[in-house]
From TrEMBL:
Protein name: Homoserine O-acetyltransferase
Principal subcellular localization: cytoplasm
Gene that specifies this protein: metA
Natural source organism: Pseudoclavibacter caeni
Gene3D superfamilies per UniProt: 3.40.50.880
Residue(s) at site: Important for substrate specificity: S193
Associated pathway: Amino-acid biosynthesis; L-methionine biosynthesis via de novo pathway; O-acetyl-L-homoserine from L-homoserine: step 1/1
Gene Ontology annotations for the cellular component aspect, listed alphabetically: cytoplasm
Site feature (Important for acyl-CoA specificity) residues: E111
Amino acid sequence: MPIRVPEGLPAIDELSRENIFVMGRHRALSQDIRPLRLIVLNLMPLKLATELQLLRLLGNTPLQVDVEFLQTGTHRSKNVSKDHLDRFYRTIDDVEGRRYDGLIVTGAPVERLPFEQVDYWPELVRILDWAAERVWSSLFICWGAQAAMWHYHGIPKRELPGGKLVGVFEHEVVDRSHPLVRGFDDRFRAPHSRYTGNSRADIEASPLDVLAVSAEAGVYLAARPDLREVYITGHGEYERETLDQEYHRDQRAGLDPAIPRNYYPGDDPDRTPEVTWRGHSQLLFANWLNLAVYQNTPFDWLTRD
């Protein structure tokens, strides 16, 4: 089934070339079904790349999904045109009176700042409080997960002692009976790229369930028991070249970055990286959409006052 996105979004052409079914508004309105209404708070600087990454995952399920994009009105990205933001993005002022089946909050390159020093933190708090009341299930990624854990549960983020954690790491499933890991292998790989993290002990002391962990990267997946909050500490949405682009960007900036671990064949940055995480990432997003959103959201959720 298709995803429905705003007409004219640049990602549409690439998704169509990849045989991902993208439906226009007029055709969607002719179908006698209720699509899932999702909104993505895109905090990443390269917004077009993140749009494409997430839409690939959302478009790989049998559910019809209506996707909108949200930005922070108190901070404007320097890496995307104002025209693109004005055309395809809303702010919390635009959507505060609406309900959504699902929300995705991306990561952001601000993790080394205390939360309260992030210039859009008050607005993000407003969005998280709104989501708790008017979004059925929220999926938080990387710094977005750290921010939501702190706001909802007081779980602190901590500077990682070895510097930046970057690479593709092996994880194991902790609770095989949990619906979010249905169909997972016992072990799977996922990318990480961050300077901070949350301790397993802190998460386990909260109302959240720990579902998947890595000996090297820590907790990867956690969720509230009712699936209203789902937390991913890594970047399963990343494409083959994403960590490579980050590595060479940091090289050009003179930061002497570490080579991403378990990413390049032979740890050679001149070789094409291998994708070893795509299958589990697609399954995780499909499980969230199906089991946390579609099967749990009341049919009249969007029309409740």
